[in-house]
């Protein structure tokens, strides 16, 4: 039986409202294989949009987190 690769979820916020979700997903795809990407229609408690991106097989979550700040 094939072992399932673990997925790591990242929360992101503070992105321009005019950016299309597919553009964000494309930018995040350079960090690894995306298994899920979601931006809810509601905002966080600070009134900002937010979202979640899940990557398969992340070996260094801190490195990806640091690189995501450049997006």
Automatic annotation (TrEMBL):
<dbReference type="InterPro" id="IPR012677">
    <property type="entry name" value="Nucleotide-bd_a/b_plait_sf"/>
</dbReference>
<keyword id="KW-0507">mRNA processing</keyword>
<dbReference type="GO" id="GO:0008380">
    <property type="term" value="P:RNA splicing"/>
</dbReference>
<keyword id="KW-0747">Spliceosome</keyword>
<dbReference type="GO" id="GO:0005681">
    <property type="term" value="C:spliceosomal complex"/>
</dbReference>
<dbReference type="InterPro" id="IPR035979">
    <property type="entry name" value="RBD_domain_sf"/>
</dbReference>
<protein>
    <submittedName>
        <fullName>RNA-binding protein 25-like</fullName>
    </submittedName>
</protein>
<keyword id="KW-0508">mRNA splicing</keyword>
<dbReference type="InterPro" id="IPR050907">
    <property type="entry name" value="SRSF"/>
</dbReference>
<keyword id="KW-0694">RNA-binding</keyword>
<feature type="domain" description="RRM">
    <location>
        <begin position="8"/>
        <end position="71"/>
    </location>
</feature>
<dbReference type="InterPro" id="IPR000504">
    <property type="entry name" value="RRM_dom"/>
</dbReference>
<dbReference type="GO" id="GO:0003723">
    <property type="term" value="F:RNA binding"/>
</dbReference>
<dbReference type="Pfam" id="PF00076">
    <property type="entry name" value="RRM_1"/>
</dbReference>
<dbReference type="GO" id="GO:0006397">
    <property type="term" value="P:mRNA processing"/>
</dbReference>
């Amino acid at each position: 039986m094939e072992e399932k690769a673990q997925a790591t979820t990242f929360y992101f916020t503070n992105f321009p409202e005019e950016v299309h979700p597919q553009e964000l997903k494309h930018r995040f795809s350079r960090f690894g294989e995306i298994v899920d990407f979601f931006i809810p229609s509601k905002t966080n408690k600070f009134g900002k949009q937010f979202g979640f991106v899940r990557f398969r097989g992340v070996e260094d979550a801190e490195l990806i987190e640091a690189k995501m700040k450049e997006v």
